[in-house]
Design brief:
This protein is mainly alpha-helical. It is built from three helices and four strands, in the order ββαββαα. About 5% of the residues have low confidence.
Length: about 120
């Protein structure tokens, strides 16, 4: 079971627990992993669309930064998210295209022997 540590009273509680067993206000402070990151129940369609657009940009940024190519190959000036090594444009390419290219590049780097071993373990 996942736990978090309260920064107010130093208690350790289950993540699912809504309030601190010591009675402090820690369930609403930043030490709780979901304190300020829950989707509001009364979110309007416009708010939902704006939130999803922000999440899309952030997830693409994380994918661009951690997709496996050298940092020196990444181009990020003026809001761009491109890789000069694998030629993926993380800002403009579809998620499907990005995934296909990353998979294709990964498979190219695996030797035939390693690929056989991998499939034999399945």
């Amino acid at each position: 079971m996942s736990q978090w540590k309260c920064s107010t009273c130093e208690c350790v509680s289950d993540i699912e627990q809504k309030s601190c067993p010591n009675g402090c206000d820690c369930a609403r402070n930043s030490s709780h992993p979901f304190a300020d990151n829950r989707v509001p129940e009364n979110e309007t369609d416009e708010q939902k669309l704006a939130r999803l657009e922000r999440e899309n940009v952030e997830l693409r940024r994380m994918w661009w930064f951690n997709h496996g190519c050298e940092f020196s190959a990444l181009y990020g000036d003026d809001g761009e998210m491109q890789c000069g090594s694998c030629l993926i444009d993380f800002k403009r390419d579809t998620v499907e295209t990005i995934g296909e290219r990353i998979l294709s590049n990964a498979l190219k780097s695996i030797s035939q022997e390693d690929l056989r071993d991998m499939f034999n373990k399945i």
